[in-house]
Amino acid sequence: MKLIKxxxxxxxxxxxxxxxxxxxxxxxxxTPKPEIEVYEGDLFATSEVHYRKKxxxxxxLWVSDRxxxxxxxxxxxxxESGKVMLSGPSTLGGMxxxxxxxxxxxxxxxxxxxxxxxxxxxxxFLCDGVILATGAALSLNPADILRKTLHAVxxxxxxxxxMAEYIEKLGDGIWLARGGIFxxxxxxxxxxxxxxxxxxxxxxxxxxxxxxxxxTFVKRLISRGLSRDITLVVKDYTKVFLSPEITERFFxxxxxxxxxxxxxxxxxxxxxxxxxxxxxxxxxILRDLRKSLKIPVIDVMEGEEFE
Length: 307
Description:
It is a single chain. The protein is α/β, with parallel strands linked by helices. The protein has two domains: 196 residues, no CATH class; 96 residues, 3-Layer(aba) Sandwich (Cytidine Deaminase, domain 2), CATH 3.40.140. Helix content is 26%, strand content 27%. A hairpin with a 2-residue loop joins strand 4 and strand 5. Helix 4 packs parallel to helix 9. The radius of gyration is 22 Å and the shape is globular.
């Protein structure tokens, strides 16, 4: 945020979080967290509870009708700089509504902080760009961090389905395509009715799954020999819940995985501090990440891109 303002001080930012940010101690890990400062003229969205706790002047622009566990979400403009705790909308619908209102208020840059293990807000159906956060909180094994981070990036780079525009116009449900002809299957979800789906799958099929793609379903495809020459299509990478091992098995068995939209990955940040108190020497990990990813990789403690 400081870098954005430094490059263009007149740019109007809007800050919010799908979780809770700005507290001095993390509510989950009980470790110190950096405070969040809002600059004069910028917008911020937080719950009623945390809006009342701020200690600087601001102008209320909008109050949501939706309620969160901490009350309604308040969108405000800072009339002076100050520190604030952010706890914005907890759903994608609430976040989309906030984004629309913020754009009407003249925001140039909307910054949304995600939450632990909640990738949904990184969907390209909501965000123009994504910054992936990784680090010692993921694992205490450097090799494991590298493997899991690269896997997450590979999911973000899944190819776009050529018929994506047509599929987006289909109604709700699970759809199976043979020879370019789509058929809606009599199944509500992948988890609830897997047998109905598996019995209809054949060589060369495309299966569009509007919800999550669980590992259990892909394992059944592989075990029954149905993964060969099949294409699974999901909305985006946030719907894929596959380990690196199962993903590799699926691809090796002849399966393909595609998306309707692919995100724009702007950078990867690395935090060498573990919630357990362990601190990595991040130089080697950062070098490996940069070599593999070919995009900016930033050490959040140093605040600069590692060279």
